Description:
The protein is α/β, with parallel strands linked by helices. The chain is about 40% helix and about 15% strand. The chain is built from twelve helices and twelve strands. It has helices at about 50-70, 95-105, 120-125, 150-165, 185-195, 205-215, 270-275, 285, 290-300, 305-310, 315-330, 335-345, and strands spanning about 15-20, 25-35, 40, 45, 75-85, 110, 175-180, 200-205, 220, 235, 255, 280. The strands form two sheets. Strands 1, 2, 3, 4, 5 and 6 form a six-stranded mixed β-sheet that branches. The protein has a six-stranded parallel β-sheet with strand order 9-8-7-10-11-12, with helices on both faces. Helix 9 (about 290-300) packs antiparallel against helix 10. The protein is globular, with a radius of gyration of 19 Å. The two termini are about 30 Å apart. The model has no long low-confidence stretch (mean pLDDT about 95). The structure holds 1,4-dihydronicotinamide adenine dinucleotide. The site of 1,4-dihydronicotinamide adenine dinucleotide (NAI) has 26 residues, from helix 4 and helix 5. 1,4-dihydronicotinamide adenine dinucleotide binds next to helix 4 and helix 5.
Amino acid sequence: MDVFGTRDFDDHExxxxxxxxxxxxxxxxxxxSTALGPAVGGCRMWPYPSTADAITDVxxxxxxxxxxxxxxxxxxGGGKAVIxxxxxxxxxxxxxxxxxxFVDSLGGRYITAEDVGxxxxxxxxxxxATRYVSGLGHKNSEAGGDPAPRTALGVFLGIKAAxxxxxxxxxxxxxxxxxxxxxxxxxxxxxxxxxxxxRLSVADVRSAAVERVRDELNAVVVRAESVLSEDVDVFxxxxxxxxxNTQTIPNLRARVVAGAANNQLASxxxxxxxxxxxxxxxxxxxxxxxxxxxxxxxxxxxxxxAQVTSEIQGIPARLTEIFERARxxxxxxxxxxxxxxxxxxxxxxRRMVA
Length: 354
Ligand code: NAI
């Protein structure tokens, strides 16, 4: 595989492969940019079908973290790690300790945390081998812990901002939202939406996850294959990436796409397709920054829970600025967000024109 020549290689500063034979660890860390500070981003554990798939994912995710941290105003660059393996069967404390040693070998250029397939408990094992880890337990009144509820808060506030902008509604009463994926973040998004009178449709590939939301929040369960074409006002992708692509966008009936998943668009051009279809897209790394704000503040130990909440409350204003600029310039929201992020990290040379 020609890593330097792939579409997703964006002058990443560093891509390293870590192997520990005794625990079976196979991991890749990608640092996209440290222009604004050490690279921060979670560690994803996933049974990638090939190493090439894992490389593509870590390249895309780490660039996304640079953009996310830059637009969230955090003093951090962007990086990400993947562990190749099935999180349901291949985990062990020793594996995460070995991963911790791998992170430590970078001397603080990369700081890790949890992501899809990894948990707070896993990060406690990582912390035995390195101090360059965040997303651990709470310490007194300092910010920290599981980032998922913090991500959900930002997504919820972002959905409100998008509904206001696109549908002209200041409340969410009877607004119809379809949520794809009701795991750590999606579940909390549903709870916040339900409390404001939203009519929820939910889909997940795990039946226990949807049953909980159905029973607790009166959500209607829909099929995972058709959630994207539900007749709703808002589609909230909270599962994995690339759910919006050339196949799915023509079937979308929602007028707003706003959710937690990273890399929701299969390619940047899909943002243009959404714009042309009259769909307002809330750029993923802007709306889902709540978790990284919490993780970053926990690492820096410079904020209380209340201060983190108030920082997350800045997400809707940032989104509205992007929505307004996109409308003024008649360009897709993701192009505007990418451009703003690249300017902040000093890589403003690639102007994206629709
Ligand atoms: P999670 O693993 O707890 O939940 C994801 C859920 O999506 C699971 O219940 C899974 O069964 C479901 N799912 C997978 N494929 C599906 C499909 N095709 N259709 C329907 N459901 C499907 O992960 P988490 O933490 O809730 O994250 C969700 C998304 O948000 C991910 O893309 C993640 O990268 C992103 N994100 C998460 C943050 C966090 O704080 N946890 C922060 C920022 C982004």
